[in-house]
Amino acid sequence: MRAHPPVPEKPRNSPQSGPRHNSMPESSKRIIEAIRAFKGPFTHADILAQTRARSGAQARSRHGKPSNKGGRERPIVDETLRGLTAAGLLLKRGRSYTRTDGFSPEGVITIDRRGAGTIKTDDGLTLGVLKENIGNAHSGDLVKAELDDIRNEVCYARVTEVRRRGKERYMARVETKLGDRILLRLVDMPGGVTLRARRSPPEPLKGDLCIVRLTGRTVSGMAECSVERSFSPDDEEYDVQRILIKHSIPDRHPHYEELDAFDKKFLFREKKGRRDYRKLYTVTIDGDNAKDFDDAISFESGHNGHRLYIHIADVSTFVKPGGELDMEAARRGTSFYLGNHVVPMLPEPLSNELCSLKERVDRLSLTAELVFDKSGKPISQSFHRGLIKVDRRLTYSSAHRMIEGGKRGKTDRLLLSMYEFAMILKQRRMRQGRLDLNLTDSEFIYEGNTLVDLIAARRFKSHTIIEEFMLSANEAVSKALRENGIPTLYRIHETISQEKLTALKKFLQTLSMPLRSVGNIGAALQEVIESVKGRDDEVVVNYIILKSLMQAYYGTEPLGHFGLGFKDYTHFTSPIRRYPDLVVHRCLKTLIERKSPPYSVEALRPVGERSSEMERIAQNAERDLHRLKSCRLMRERIGEVFDAVISGISRYGFFVTLMERPIEGMVPLRTLTNDYYLVNEDEFTVVGRRLGRRFRLGDRVRVRLIGVEIETMRIDFEVATAAS
């Protein structure tokens, strides 16, 4: 379920919100032109004189003689110089000013849906760009610009050059044909940019979607492109391709010469000197269609406690720092899971074969041995370069059936013991302040390559086993690296901010659920989660709590994980599909082998930032595919009525999530025609001014589907009747 928290208004001085028109832009422009004319230091008086000369105006004294006091120009010069200095575009020393490089900034431009832009430079400058000054730039491009204006303490620039395109391939829609050219408009790119392409067979039809590549030429203000492929918007085959292009996700791996070295001799050499775990009964538990098995588990339970073995694929043996494989993995940051299509971080010969912990095959591992007492309290931990052989490959569903089945086979008994211990671990962590949000992922159901349904993914007891055991391993590795002073990447989740906590309290008060004031905010939030179990608004409340929390990220400081209640936490268990895990493996190996740390803190910072960024891209890509596939499923159901829950409030209406499947759409304000409705974002409501009808976040409503737009990935509903 994808709920949307209320959308706040943008600040009036935000570059993307555009300028207010009471700011005397022409005067500001003249001042900036005057400053640009000086190559060295200048004073306030110099700019005042230049500005007056450029405007052709001169102030007069009360006797009618020319005056040097500046007249009406002086306050404008004062304001502009103050604004430019505050923005870092001017340096002031005494009475002199010096221009910085910000007058000719270079940075990445982001364009909003209205066509306005924002340039962010490496120096931390942020400049607005009006729609008419964007030129031929697209969102994500590296551009060179010139400072153009300052309005209400916001600096504006105009694009003078596109230095580097943000990406090479785009998705575009055929708009019209003009002579020997086709005009196309970019899809999934804000700003409504128009491209031109030569007409050539096979010629796309008007309205077709095309995969295009920019040629680098610009004619009549429009970028030239070549059409690689065209297809109908109704062709579902290209949905994943569209998402890959939108988010600039690389799909295919090139051939890496490093792969040629991984022959039988290499594997024979690498098996030496490792702890042999092949006599332990070992299983993997993964999804039905998984091919990249990066974790396996062994478990021993006795009267005095429990011994847990977490075997993780030893990817770092194959992917060496600084090699082609490593650099490409660092660039990708993560694997991308898009429906039935996977874009792996590592090439398939590694991700699906050599590194994957496949059944009945010797595999290299990095193994965490964790010993607990009967209550789940950690007693000891050790880490080893291991050699394993998986005895049985299980799926979440098959493992669940074995736990529930009551049979007495070896695997059945092992799974039951593991589940019982996993619940002990979970209950112990809940007492320590962990949040247990009741949210499930969505699952696409395919017949072959055709999508037939979208459902809430079922949660099995076997999921609990894997989650709790992997949490244990991640916590243990983080603690070991921290205590031994080895720089590494931590998984950080900071405590909820006061601002977000205040907003969350407001929301909960609208539901008559005040947040209890206790020392442990996590415990108070968990009380709320428990109190809404079984209610219509359960998922909405859980999701709003989730959105109120800080985003987790990768960093170099052991700041802990608020949501899990851990002082120590990192990612260690998925090196096939997450680059930070591979980094952590390298760090852990130096602890095992008593070698110098492989990274400095300074070297790890950009790795953490890049990995966090790619994680966000992966999440956005998955979200977009969910929206697109939702549109596919709903397009034949126009006019049907559904039970739904209000899952978000915005200034344009409210969002609803269907009860029958995790599909979300919007009820625009324009469809509420029986009254004049006002959005109250503080109270999370939409209220009719005359009749007083109220729609509140979490309320159940009946809605009718009135529109589906595949291209914009938009689903619109209208209110039918109140739900019974």
Summed up, what is this model?
The chain has 724 residues and is α+β, with helices and mostly antiparallel strands.
Describe the structure.
With about 725 residues, the chain is an alpha+beta fold. Helices cover about 30% and strands about 30% of the residues. Among the domains are: about 15-165, Nucleic acid-binding proteins (OB fold (Dihydrolipoamide Acetyltransferase, E2P)), CATH 2.40.50.140; about 170-235, Beta Barrel (OB fold (Dihydrolipoamide Acetyltransferase, E2P)), CATH 2.40.50.140; about 255-430 and about 440-470, no CATH class; about 635-720, OB fold (Dihydrolipoamide Acetyltransferase, E2P) (Beta Barrel). It contains 15 helices and 34 strands. The strands form ten sheets. The chain has a five-stranded antiparallel beta sheet. Strands 9-10-11-13-12 form a five-stranded mixed beta barrel. The radius of gyration is 30 Å and the shape is globular.
